[in-house]
Amino acid sequence: MRIKLTSLYVDDHEKALRFYTDVLGFVKKGDVTHGGYRWLTVVSPEEPEGVELQLALNDSPAARAYQQALFQQGQPATIFHTADLSREYERLSGLGVTFTVPLTTENWGSRAVLDDTCGNLIQLTQPAW
């Protein structure tokens, strides 16, 4: 058994697609519309056949409430790893990305938390191991 897909609620598909591809550097993998539903996924360019991240529209009251509750309490909706967090932090800061937690070094590694502009906080980490 392996993880193939995980989902993240977003408040706007097009805005999310731009942020996750143009800013974070992911690549669009799936984009299918059926009726009023859109299935939209991105992947890491380093692992194009790896885990897909579904950018799921928060168009139900439960999805919206869940997303907003996580954001309001400052809890990241997901965590991405990077091999060079300092470089990513500088690159993203230069693109105008807002960080709610600046680059911080812990005993387990480094982290920073950004606002994805689509209703989520995303933690970037570089583990020390």
Describe the structure concisely for a colleague.
The protein is α/β, with parallel strands linked by helices and 129 residues long.
Entry keywords:
129 residues, 2,3-Dihydroxybiphenyl 1,2-Dioxygenase, domain 1, four-stranded mixed sheet, 41% strand
Order of helices and strands: EHEEEHEHEEE
Q: What is the CATH architecture term? A: Roll
Give the spatial strand order of the biggest sheet: 1-4-3-2
CATH superfamily: 2,3-Dihydroxybiphenyl 1,2-Dioxygenase, domain 1
Beta-strand content estimate? 35-45%
How many β-strand stretches?
A: 8
Which radius of gyration do the C-alpha atoms yield?
15 Å
Structural class: alpha/beta
Determine the oligomeric state from the structure.
single chain
**CATH topology tier name:** 2,3-Dihydroxybiphenyl 1,2-Dioxygenase, domain 1
Q: In the CATH hierarchy, what is the class?
A: Alpha Beta
Explain this structure to me?
- The protein is α/β, with parallel strands linked by helices and 129 residues long.
- It has one domain (5-127): 2,3-Dihydroxybiphenyl 1,2-Dioxygenase, domain 1 (Roll).
- 26% of the residues lie in helices and 41% in strands.
- The strands form 2 sheets. A 4-stranded mixed sheet has the order 1-4-3-2. It has a 4-stranded mixed sheet with strand order 5-8-7-6, with helices on one face.
- A hairpin with a 2-residue loop joins strand 6 (99-106) and strand 7.
- It is globular and about 45 Å long.
